[in-house]
Amino acid sequence: MPWLLLFAAIVAEVVATSLLKSTAGFTRLEPSVVVVLAYGAAFGLLSHCLKKMPVGVVYAVWSGVGVALITLVAWFFLDQPLDAPALAGLALIVGGVVVINVLSKAAVE
User: What is the DSSP code (8-state) at residue 78?
Assistant: First the structure.
């Protein structure tokens, strides 16, 4: 269950971050409300993950997967160009998360 909560927290954070620019500095009501609610949901879900999982692992997965997903969202939906070095960097981030979760004993509590 904590992994499902973590995934939901990451999705909520990616939704909020994806819409952040559209708030125009929080001057547009609708996207601003969605951003605040999504970030609130993300942090609420994240706090529940920390009841069962080590903070280092949670944060590594949260940040690594979050960075990769928001970059892909920006590439596909917000017309942000990505070159080969950017894609290689994303692969390294995702690889690091995999190493932590598959090989590290720190991932088990």
Answer: S
Percent of the chain having pLDDT more than 90? Answer: 54
* 92 C-beta neighbours (distance < 10 Å), count: 11
Question: What is this structure's pTM?
Answer: 0.84
Domain residue limits at 102: 2-107
Per the structure block, which two tokens stand in for 11? 């999705």
Tokens linked to 84: 């080969």
SS3 content of the chain, % helix, strand, coil (to 5): 80, 0, 20
**CA–CA gap between residue 79 and residue 7 (Å, rounded):** 25
Identify the three-state secondary structure at position 104: coil
Domain count along the chain: 1
Residue 83 CA to residue 39 CA, distance in Å, equals 29
Tens digit of pLDDT for each residue in 61-104?
A: 898 889 989 998 999 998 889 999 988 998 998 888 888 777 77
